[in-house]
Design a protein that fits this description.
Elements lengths: L1 E2 L2 H18 L7 E2 L1 H6 L2 H7 L10 H7 L11 H9 L10 E2 L2 E2 L15
Parallel strand pairs: 1-2
Antiparallel strand pairs: 3-4
Length: 116
């Protein structure tokens, strides 16, 4: 489950196609409106879906509700370090709460400046 916007949906579909090529496992994504994405209880989504896209303000709530498993499983340190290095600003640590990584950044609403 993700939000109904190209930034939230298109990367998930593209990554899922690559995952299927690599593993043979198919992932189907559904989407919700941005308003529903912000207001619908994460706990209910977690009961209905194996993978969900969340916004970083939900991290505290979902850890309190114990509705998602942390993603910092042993043996994947190199992959997590690569994700952290490739993330914009503090995107990666914004999903870390109480010493655990609860999500990975897929999108960053951030200020960017370029100078020539």
């Amino acid at each position: 489950m993700t939000w109904s916007h190209p930034r939230g949906y298109d990367p998930m579909v593209a990554c899922s196609a690559l995952w299927q090529e690599k593993t043979g496992v198919s992932i189907e994504w559904e989407k919700r409106s941005l308003q529903d994405f912000e207001s619908f209880p994460v706990e209910e989504l977690a009961r209905a879906y194996d993978l969900i896209v969340i916004d970083h303000p939900h991290v505290g709530q979902l850890t309190a509700e114990k509705c998602l498993a942390p993603l910092d499983v042993p043996g994947r340190e190199a992959e997590r370090e690569a994700l952290a290095r490739g993330s914009v600003g503090k995107s990666y640590p914004s999903y870390n709460w109480q010493g655990r990584q609860w999500a990975f950044p897929i999108d960053a609403a951030t200020q960017v400046q370029a100078w020539r």
